[in-house]
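=== RUN LOG ===
request id: a7f3
mode: sequence -> structure
chains: 1
length: 190
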Amino acid sequence: MPLRLLSLIALLCLPAALHAQSEAPARYQFFGGYSYISNSLNGVTGSHQPLSGWDASVAFPSWRNLRFKVDVAGYTGTNLGAPQNPYFILAGGQYSKRLGRETLFAEGLIGDGGANKAWGGSVAAGETASFASLLGGGLDTRLSRHFAFRVNGGYQYSYFALAGSGNVPYRIPGLPTNFGRLSSGLVWLF
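=== RESULT ===
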């Protein structure tokens, strides 16, 4: 009888012991890395040029696997003889689910995009601000207790227009509004 009682107590305590050994999710996440966007602002049909740049974000403590996230990205390049220097400041939610060493996440962010004044073809003036949104997701793979490698991507929307006479915006056919975005880099977890 004492052996059965001892086995029953051990069986009841095992889930609590295993739960205590599982690692708690990181309170904050800081990400920094390389980013790629599929087209330049003036990339009309027949003249698509991807842009390279950087991406940085901070995700705040989670509530039921949902975090508030702020993301900032900047790109550089040239297309149709004009410099392209867009940047995006976005904020929103990130929902994550842990699967062993990996963490899958989905995110929805909205915010503002900005650009240099002369991004239009042949250095034509363009609007310097636009609404922007990002829907995407990614994968974090833990490298150690405080670091992970992140790969993420998604669909980004922004609506930059050219500046006409009197700064009245206008759009030419084929001016892009839909972009693909990929990023990878390190996440600092603490």
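=== NOTES ===
Confidence is low (pLDDT under 50) at residues 14-21.
Residues 26-189 form a domain with the Porin fold (CATH 2.40.160.20).
=== END ===
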